[in-house]
Amino acid sequence: MSNVPPIESVVATLVAEHPLFDAHVDALQRQLDLGHDLGVAGPGQFDLERGRRAGLGAVVLVCWCDPGYIRPERGGAFARTVALLEQAHVLARRHPARVLLAGNGADVERAHAGGRVAAIPGIEGGHSIEDSLDKLDWFFERGVRVMTLVWNNHLAWIRSCQDGAGPGIPEGLSEFGRGVVARMNELGMLVDLSHAGERSFYDTLDCSAHPVMASHSGCKALHDHPRNLNDAQLRALAARDGVVGIVFHPGFLDAAAREEEARVRASDAYKALGGGDDTLTFTRQSELMQRTASPLPLARLLDHVCHAAAVAGVAHVGIGSDYDGILRGPQGLEHAGCYDRLVDGLLGRGFGHDEVRAILGGNMRRAFAAATGAGTRAGAGAELIPLVAS
Fold it and tell me: What is the pLDDT of residues 261-310, one digit of tens each?
């Protein structure tokens, strides 16, 4: 008989000693709009209870403000983002034994040592700062440590990866956009380039003093989707000691999966779910998509991990699920309770134990620590002060 330990033992050891770091989760909307408690097992794709059981040690909880909130009659992007950020603080106050708001790399390690999940508040989309560095500072003082510079909507200071930019949109970063990156560097915030246009991507690498990440992207060589990175971008990211988080979205990972999702979205059953609260509608659409669309095998996600590792190097690959921001996950990664299945999958692709630890957590921890430093101006756990947006 072989003395090699069973795979279940290997998985348990790896996730216990070196917990996973998910660089992008969108679940705060569910807590704000639907009253879901993210600290306990429940509906949706993500909660801390299922994640903890599957080895989660750190997660970036992003405040994604639907661009529709930019309209004054809906209160503005800043106010909506403040409301979402407050939910991260609510979560930490409600479950102090389970979660710690982390402001830097030392906090992430402290959370792990105390058996807690490090929750890192983030922002997805620079429209949330409403062209104001003062508002960027305000978010930092109240715990935000990651910002995705742009979502799919172009801004006056940065172009996204999507088509349709008007004549007033820069090719990449404007001077103000470079100022945003510089200020994030000064404060200790990790710059996120998922959703950024190619010129915006390179402009940011050119001006950032610290490593950056692309928190939830795939490999364009495997699926030519605008949200994915080409090989030159992967190499450039690695050259600056950055990390790409491979997204779980089947439509970003595979052309046939994208077509399958389009088929479901065109169905009468899917269309009938529209109307009412946007977050509730999305949750119901997600349940329908996961239940009825032909599944994408987990192997396809592993293909993207392997490709990114071959091009950029193992030290520059992580995970960014985009849970609760995607309509479904790959087969076997339907929700946060499935994180640990990645261990078996990566070992099966020939990665060693140290490489698996790096991909699932170590690389993102390194990038986060490098960007946030050890001495930020305000701890992430500072009290969230109520503010009425002007």
Answer: 999 999 999 999 987 799 999 999 999 999 999 999 999 999 999 999 99
Among 356, 19, 23, 21, which residue's Cα sits nearest to residue 214? 23
What does the pLDDT average to over 243-271? 98
Structural domains of the chain in order of their starting residue, each with its CATH number: 8-372 (3.20.20.140)
